[in-house]
């Protein structure tokens, strides 16, 4: 397993927090896979690189999907450190460990007779939306019957993920001299009042098995020009994470009904809702239980991952990856033993068909 750890370290040394760096990481992965005797296809869309590598045969296809791009980090975070059974570094948990395990699994399984096709997808833009890579691949038919995105899940199975709705709301007011605010109408104050009303809307009172409620984040607010003028326009930006089963149109309608402002939809990503009863979940769950000694843990993710591109096409998708912590923060790490366990789980899953 030292070779797997070495592969992870080499990936962590690449600063893939920029598109150029992420493209470099994709190229590194392609070179490594080719050196292991795998067939690799490199693709590019809008300056974003990605690769495909397929093994096995059969009527079913399972997608192993992962991203090499990471959020920004301190220079020291791109120098991997192994300590107390953990590998520290930017992207160690999110999600270069998962990528390394998927690459290693594909390289070791390539000459085996499998009853399923495994399609490895390595992409470079998940952290900025995923539309140029996984979105592009899915739209162009690079799909399967089941997809695993190797996000860090502590070896649990994330069956669901909230939908994401990013919107700007332009709220109007009336300009006046700053010394006579009663003669105007403050657009910033109007926006703040509207935000409070939005937080009381019916869609935020829903709940499901995995989620106590949706969420609304007031991400940005921009209004006003100078001190001595009552602002007559304010733009409020919201990040709404809604539940499986809820509809984007209904949320937008509820917000539109209580404002005279202009709504501008920036991003709308569907929720993920893979069923526990799915045949692929049954196969994977038994493997997780075999290697952990406890029943598989099911849960829902609050954030959004590239799983939603598959879900939008009706393809069951999950997040499933090794254990770690502090992704997007300082002291990000992956538990090395969980990485080894994860690799074995992926291999057993591929052999289970």
From TrEMBL:
InterPro entries: Bact_exopeptidase_dim_dom, Peptidase_M20, Peptidase_M20_dimer, Peptidase_M20A. GO terms for molecular function: hydrolase activity; metal ion binding. Residues 161-260 form the Peptidase M20 dimerisation domain. Transmembrane segments: none annotated. Keywords: Hydrolase, Metal-binding. Pfam families: M20_dimer, Peptidase_M20. It comes from the Bacteria. This is M20 family peptidase. It comes from Mesobacillus zeae. The lineage of its organism: Bacteria, Bacillati, Bacillota, Bacilli, Bacillales.
């Amino acid at each position: 397993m030292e070779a797997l750890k070495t592969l992870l370290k080499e990936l962590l040394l690449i600063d893939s927090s920029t598109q150029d760096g992420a493209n470099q990481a994709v190229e590194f992965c392609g070179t490594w896979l080719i050196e292991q005797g795998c067939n690799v296809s490199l693709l590019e869309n809008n300056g974003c690189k990605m690769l495909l590598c397929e093994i096995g045969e059969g009527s079913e296809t399972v997608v192993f999907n992962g991203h090499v791009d990471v959020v920004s980090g301190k220079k020291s975070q791109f120098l991997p450190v192994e300590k107390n059974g953990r590998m520290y570094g930017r992207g160690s948990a999110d999600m270069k460990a998962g990528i390394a395990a998927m690459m290693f699994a594909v390289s070791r399984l390539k000459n085996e007779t499998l009853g399923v096709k495994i399609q490895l997808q390595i992409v470079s833009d998940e952290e900025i939306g995923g539309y140029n890579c996984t979105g592009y691949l899915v739209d162009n038919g690079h799909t399967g019957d089941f997809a695993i995105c190797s996000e860090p899940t502590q070896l649990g199975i994330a069956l669901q993920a909230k939908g994401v709705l990013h919107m700007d709301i332009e709220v109007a007011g009336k300009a006046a001299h700053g010394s006579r605010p009663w003669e105007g109408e403050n657009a910033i104050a109007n926006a703040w009042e509207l935000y409070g009303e939005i937080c009381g809307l019916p869609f935020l009172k829903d709940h499901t098995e995995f989620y106590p409620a949706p969420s609304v984040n007031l991400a940005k607010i921009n209004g006003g020009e100078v001190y001595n003028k009552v602002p007559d326009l304010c733009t409020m930006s919201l990040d709404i994470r809604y539940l499986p089963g809820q509809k984007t149109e209904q949320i937008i309608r509820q917000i539109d009904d209580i404002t005279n402002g202009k709504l501008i939809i920036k991003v709308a990503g569907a929720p993920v809702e893979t069923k526990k009863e799915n045949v692929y979940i049954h196969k994977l769950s038994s493997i997780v239980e075999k290697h952990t000694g406890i029943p598989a843990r099911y849960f829902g993710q609050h954030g959004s991952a590239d799983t939603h591109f598959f879900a939008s096409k009706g393809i069951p998708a999950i997040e499933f990856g090794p254990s770690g912590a502090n992704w997007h923060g300082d002291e990000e790490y992956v538990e090395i033993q969980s990485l080894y366990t994860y690799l074995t789980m992926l291999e057993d899953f591929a052999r289970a068909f």
